[in-house]
């Protein structure tokens, strides 16, 4: 080999080495390196895959500003490196990652969520939740990437959690009862009303999509009566064209106030819970005279299409006005029973506080039946035969039934009609033919 050729090869090798050094310099995300042993294909959700990847680096030493297995990891370097392999870019700073994606309540944690500690505004530490009350993290100098419990010390310094991918926690569908919607987001003129119309009967109940704080807005002529909900997830929900009619006609004689556009008793700046009544369907603003609807928008660093959120939302079975403990009466037909539960096909629900009636629900509801509950069989002639004491065991499929629930504090699971969230203390079975 000629000397000149050898020098040329050496020069090329040096250029390659320098490029490699530049690629791994601080402030960049190094290309993920394969593990020394063959790894199985990733499976499950994005969060599950993040956990699977993170576990590959157990035992890697902690290094301040480290962001690779070869270099070592600090806490945000580990999370950044893991999610980079899933195509999700995170900045190498806990403060930035705390603002990425969607805020998650502790009871909503799933594997892969980022959990933060030491500081509510700019946390000083973070890791990846792996399930069962544990997380994986790079703790501090002199330690290694490891799994720790979130109880004890870490429980006392817990700051919050973020899901850096997907749609975030499911929302509550904004309207109670029959409603239709379609994906009109892309057909809306850019910058003007970027959302979806939810069509429903005038004055249908409008509810909070998630826990948050409400603000009344009436300064935009196009929007009419508008409500903005700043959600705990970091998302903002906007409800436009709320009701401004006093009668059931299009009289436009009402104002954007509580009791007309907004829920009776609701105050501007008030904190609300998911599923709480916040307003009424209408046709104010540029929607005047059209089919009543709510124009629903979702914002997260700008408007995003509400359609996927609506498709995955949770629909309330009923709603109640804020106040003391609630109770409902339910009319329907028996589907099945156990020794302690009753499942019915619901026709009508009457709810208090609010004296609200919800008809033609066509949904199944399973309630617990309280020990010692009053269970009776209606006689064919109530004035003559009266009521006969009986048990759930005598109920037959298709038999008419009426029940009343035990007064209890309002919960989202109860409003959704989740299994076991309601308890009946009175059950009346219809007379059999």
List keywords for this structure.
3 domains; alpha+beta; endopeptidase fold (from Nostoc punctiforme); six-stranded antiparallel beta sheet; 7 helices; single chain; 13% helix; 433 residues; Glucose Permease (Domain IIA); eight-stranded antiparallel beta sheet; OB fold (Dihydrolipoamide Acetyltransferase, E2P); 31% strand
Quickly describe the structure:
Helix content is 13%, strand content 31%.
State mean pLDDT (0 to 100 scale): 88
End-to-end span in angstroms? 106 Å
CATH topology (fold) name of the largest domain:
Glucose Permease (Domain IIA)
> For the report, how would you describe the main beta sheet?
8 strands, antiparallel
Radius of gyration over all CA atoms, rounded: 29 Å
- Helix/strand-derived category reads alpha+beta
